[in-house]
Amino acid sequence: MEAAAPLLGVEDGDYAPVKTFRELKDMVWSETVKTWAISGPVIFQIVCQYGTNSVTNIFVGQLGEIELSGVSIAISVIATFAFGFMFGMGSATETLCGQAFGAGQIHMLGVYMQRSWIIMFICALIITPIYVFATPILKLLGQQDDVAELAGSFSLLILPQLFSFVVAFPTQKFLQAQSKVWTLAWIGFGALMIHVLMLWLFIFQFGWGTTGAALALNISGWGISIAQCIYVMGWCRDAWHGFSWLAFRDLWGFVKLSFSSAIMFCLEIWYMSTIIILAGHLPNAVISVDSLSICMNLDGWENIIFIGINVAMSVRVSNELGKARPRAAEYSVYVTVVESLLLGLLFMVAIFFAKDHFAVIFTSSVTVQKYVAKLAYLLGITMVLNSVQPVISGVAIGAGWQALVAYINLGCYYIFGLPLGIILGYVANFGVKGLWGGMIAGIAMQTIMLLIVLYKTNWNKEVAETSGRLQKWTGQDNKIKEET
Fold first, then answer.
1. Distance separating alpha carbons of residues 161 and 167, to the nearest angstrom
2. Residue 114 CA: distances (Å) to CA of 138, 246, 249, 258, 479
3. First vs last Cα of the chain: how many Å apart?
4. Are residues 381 and 422 in the same domain?
5. Looking at residues 293-316, what average pLDDT do you find?
6. Bridge-partner residues for 8, per DSSP?
7. How far is C-alpha 170 from the geometric centre of its chain's CA atoms?
8. Range of the domain at 260
9. Which spans are transmembrane here (predicted)?
């Protein structure tokens, strides 16, 4: 941190223009430390979060194939859909809390969090029928009856977990905006350890089967939510001033920003999930789906790293814009984009070198292993593109561009990439390679468009818009606070 001191302006703390190699080196090091100080704990937290679902499947898998299939589908289809939408809705809190914290309006963070609680509770009520009617929904999607019925019953049992998202996600964004990410990491780790213990007790010792697995998920979800709230209310007294009626003000504007965030996030999640569904209708469906699932599994682990960087980028950009430091926001973006690209290229090279071997971890089928090796080149390209795209999405959240990125995602993914993939896969008979190639084309177009948006961004204008947004959202509240 001290190495960056010569670059800092005296008056406002913003970076001075970089003119020498030494200044560039100091700035890059400073931004690298700041970014990874946030992204490291977030990555650890996400690993724990993914681990909760993974160990649940492992324990349930000991009960039987039908139990494993039913629980896996309930978690990967029903719960993941709800998770994605609710997580996206919480991103509005990330934008506003980050910018308010940077601007020194720390007292508003608790109000924003409460507004998000209200909106997300209503969203949870709207999503509830998906859990209640999961069985007919899954049958409609082509699942066999016994699996769909078990998945539907399990989905109904984990309904309380859905409502834990209402509390957990806004609270996470509240803490992330203040860079209090290690707290979230340790809460996530503790929850994972307790979750494993509960699964062992409920399934094997008490004999509760899938009901025990559902109970463990519910307790873990609410345990995380309650632990985060206890920390907020006990150790964040500068940002938490108790429950306030101000949380009910300007709800419609908050809803619009939240919905834009959810659409932006969900369009990205659903896009890559679609390729597996489409692959299931190809002539060699079993081999295609198996090999594609292996590749997507590895891509998912890479995504965990870049989701952490996404959060760090959102925090850095929103904080710096709130502090009226345009050059710091700009430098942070470009340093992180370049470093993420280099990291993505490293992953691509590793995949290319291991293309004939890494599938052995997942399957003993020689046929699937050979097919995975043929898809490795597409996986490597996807990893490079997925290294840059989450960074820019984090910038979008930090700067409040969610609506713009949602439109870009819709056009690039669903109007261009998906139809192209269908044409290449089904009409041109390229199979899964064609499907995936079309998807890659959509991601490439989205990445290029977002890079153009970044290149044309006037960061001084972004600071002004951030100031205007904060005045709009906090002007009346500040006046009330001063009067009281």
1. 10
2. 34, 9, 11, 13, 19
3. 39
4. yes
5. 88
6. 15
7. 13
8. 253-478
9. 73-96, 117-138, 150-169, 181-203, 215-236, 257-280, 300-319, 331-355, 375-397, 404-428, 434-455
More confident residue, 1 or 288: 288
Record the pTM: 0.87
Is the pLDDT assigned to residue 481 strictly greater than 50?
Answer: no
Tell me, yes or no, whether 165 lies in a domain.
yes
283 and 221 within one domain: no
Give a yes or no: residue 34 inside a domain.
Answer: no
Instruction: Classify residue 449: in a domain, yes or no.
Output: yes
> Within this chain, do residues 78 and 115 fall inside the same structural domain, yes or no?
yes
Same domain assignment for residues 226 and 324: no
Bridge partners of residue 161, in order along the sequence: none
Q: Do 415 and 471 sit in the same domain of this protein?
A: yes
pLDDT tens profile 216-256: 999 999 999 999 999 999 999 899 999 988 888 878 878 88
**Residue entry with tokens 């001033």:** 241
372 or 276: which leads in pLDDT: 372
Q: How confident is the model at residue 279 (pLDDT cuts 50, 70, 90)?
A: confident
Cα 336 to Cα 314: distance, rounded to the nearest angstrom: 11
Cα separation values, 250 from 112, 171, 238, Å: 10, 19, 23
Q: Choose one of 222, 249, 276: the last residue of a domain.
A: 249
Q: pLDDT confidence of 150, banded at 50, 70, 90?
A: very high
Last residue of a domain, one of 195, 224, 249: 249
Res 12: pLDDT: 59
Ranges of H-type helices in 103-208: 108-132, 134-140, 145-157, 159-176, 181-199
Residues constituting the chain: 484
pLDDT digits (tens, 9 = 90+) for 40-77: 999 999 999 888 988 998 899 888 888 888 888 888 78
| For residue 473, pLDDT beyond 70 | no
Q: Is the distance from CB of 387 to CB of 344 less than 8 angstroms?
A: yes
Q: For the chain, what is the domain count?
A: 2
Residue-wise pLDDT tens digits, 335-373: 999 999 999 999 999 999 998 888 887 778 888 889 889
* Residue 27 forms part of a structural domain: no
